[in-house]
Design goal:
Length: 279
């Protein structure tokens, strides 16, 4: 074999590397379109993701702040009374708006990418894993997946700059209309929150809040857009809910999340995030 290769080299005046290059060039020409598409798809995927994640994080942070207030006061105040079908309480409307804004901004990303684009990069895949966790059956979802998505779509509006979500004023006006489709679908969420005295509903809200905190800490680890909240109220979870968090959500959907040792002062786990954006 070696002698044949030597003969080939000696019988040609051109340097051997030119011969190799001549042989490789057609292969490179054949592969180039696929490679170009692969890298351009990844660039577009990251662009779509980072164009939309800021709005989702900001609304997530506002929602988490409201949930923290509700949990710290044992749900007294905004949702300590019977369901008000008139929805004339501004604070109550604002709470509903925060949930709707969260799902609405997710809907914006879904419509702009169909999630197929962002799934091409690791950070996008992990975002979708969080969505699965938010929507999966169990105590971690406050309302069913279809209702979450309907609310998100109902929050969308088209502007000259593209897709956006309703403002608080527009949302409030919609809820004041007896025949509003958004009002009818929001009543499902309002009923769950209004019945937070029910142990099952309370556990759903607390677990959703903990999952929302993990979402924020993962995608904004330096808390540039969000506040760094240390407590997650894991101590308020029932044994069943705690097991669902530890053995279903974290081990089945969010396996990529790593934790430092348990922080006994806050009675919670602290996310350890390293090189997350190297995707």
């Amino acid at each position: 074999m070696k002698s044949i290769l030597s003969d080939l080299i000696s019988n040609h005046k051109e340097p051997f590397w030119i011969l190799v290059g001549t042989a490789i060039f057609p292969i490179a020409q054949f592969l180039y379109p696929d490679l170009k598409k692969y890298f351009s798809d990844r660039i577009r995927a990251k662009k779509v993701f980072f164009e939309n994640i800021d709005a989702i994080l900001i609304t997530s942070d506002e929602l988490l702040s409201k949930l923290f207030d509700m949990i710290k006061t044992d749900f007294k105040g905004t949702y300590s009374v019977r369901l008000d079908q008139e929805m004339d309480n501004n604070e109550r409307i604002y709470t509903l708006y925060l949930f709707a804004s969260f799902w609405g901004n997710i809907a914006v990303m879904r419509h702009e990418s169909s999630f197929s684009k962002i799934a091409k990069v690791r950070i996008g895949k992990r975002f979708l894993k969080f969505l699965i966790a938010f929507e999966s059956k169990g105590n971690n979802r406050i309302i069913d997946r279809s209702t979450q998505r309907i609310i998100g779509d109902a929050m969308l509006k088209y502007t000259s700059q593209g897709l956006s979500i309703l403002s608080l004023y527009e949302f409030s006006n919609e809820l004041s209309k007896a025949d509003s489709g958004l009002r009818k679908i929001m009543l499902k969420l309002d009923e769950v929150l209004a019945n937070s005295g029910n142990r099952k509903n309370r556990q759903k809200i607390i677990l959703f809040g903990i999952l929302l905190k993990y979402f924020i800490d993962y995608f904004d680890p330096k808390h540039i857009l969000t506040r760094n909240r240390y407590s997650t109220f894991i101590n308020k979870l029932s044994t069943k809910s705690r097991n669902e968090l530890d053995f279903k959500i974290l081990k089945l959907y969010l396996k990529f999340i790593k934790f430092r040792k348990k922080n006994s002062y806050w009675n919670t786990k602290v996310l350890h995030i390293k090189n997350m954006f190297n995707s």
